Amino acid sequence: MKKFTSIAGWLALASGFAALFFYIVLPDLKTLILSLTALSISNGIFLLVSEGTSLKKFFSSRMAQHGTNAIILTAVFLGVLIFTNLLIHRHKHRFDFTEANLFTLAPQTKKFIANLPREVNLTAFFQIETPEKNAFENLIAGYLEETDKIGITYVDPDKNPAVTKQYGVTTYGTIVLESGSKETKVQNATEENLTNALLKVTRDEQKVIYFLEGHGENQIDSTENEGHQTAKKNLEQDGFIVKPLLLLQTGEVPKDASTLVIAGPKKPIQKEEQKALKSYLEKGGAVMMLVDPKSKHGMEAFLKNWGVELGDNIVIDPMSKLFGGDFAAPVVNQYSAHDITSEFVLPTIFPIIQSVKAIPTSKIETVELLKTSANSWGESNF
C-alpha cells in the first residue's frame, strides 16, 4: 500500500507541475491542462485519504518521524490548493439558475463576442453601489466570460467630473465603447444595445442588405402579415444597413451590397434584371430568394442555371397534424450539417411551400439545408 501511495504522490506532483507549466507557457492547451490538473487532484485526493493519519501526525509530531511520505503529502496538499485556486481564477464560469435564463447571453451574442476582431475598451459611468451598476455588472460578466478582448473601467461621475466631461457624458449609466478610432455610447445597457454598440466599433464598415422592389415583393416597411418591417428592424439592430433596390432603374446591383433579398415577387423579373443578377452572382455576390408556389416571377430557368430546381407543386405533409398544424404547413426537423442550420434544434413550420431540388453542376456546389418528413409529397393537382 505504501508503494502505491508513494507513486500517487509523485504522480500528483509531476502532473501538477506539468499542468502549471502548460498553464503559464501554453495557456491555449486547455484540454491538456485540465486533464493534467484532474490527474493531479485525483492522485492528491487518493494520497490524502490513504495517508490521512500521517497528515494528522505530521502536524502533532516531529517531522523526522514521517520521512518522505509526509513531505510528499504536504507538497501535494499545497499544490492542489494553489493550482485549484489558479484554475478557478483563470477559468471563471457563471451559473444561471433563473427559470428564464435572465443572466445567460443569446447564442448569437456569445458567438459574436468569442470572435471579436479587436480589443474594445468600455468606460462605465455609474454611481457606486447602485442597482443600475449591479445590473450592468451581471450583464457584462457574461461578455467577459466569452472573451479577453473587452476591458472595462468604472467611473463615478460625482467623484470624477473631469473624466465625465471629457467623454461628454451627461447621464448616469452611460457606457462609452472605444475600439481603434471608433467610439459610441450606450445609455440603456441591455444585451441588445451593448452588442450592437460592439458591432459598430469593431466593424470597419457596415454591411448593406438590399431588398428588391418593383415586382410586387413584400415591402420592408410594411406592418402587414407579409411585410418585412420586423426583419428590417432586427437587421438594423444587428448593425446592418437595409435599403430598397429598384433594379430596373439602377441597371446593376450596387457595389456595396453584401446581400440582395428577393422576397415574394409576384410579377416577372425582367431579362435585363436577370442579367444584372447573374453579373452580381458571378462576382461573388449573395442572393436570398423567397418565392411562393404559383407566383409568376419568371425565375425558374435562372435558378436552374444556378443548381436549383423549383417544383410546380405544394408540399403536403400528414405529419404536420401531429403538431396541430395543417397538411399544407410542413413541420421540418431534419437539418443538414451547415453553418446556417447549426443552431437549429427545434422544429420549424413552413406554410404553403413548393419543393426545391438541388441540381448538381460542375461549377456550383449545392447543399440541401432541410427536409420534410419521409411521408411528405409534392401535390401538383391544386
From TrEMBL:
Keywords: Membrane, Transmembrane, Transmembrane helix. The keyword Endoplasmic reticulum does not apply. Gene3D superfamilies: Glutaredoxin. The keyword Lipid metabolism does not apply. It holds the Pfam family DUF7088. Residues 206-379 form the ABC-type uncharacterised transport system domain. This is Uncharacterized protein. It comes from marine metagenome.
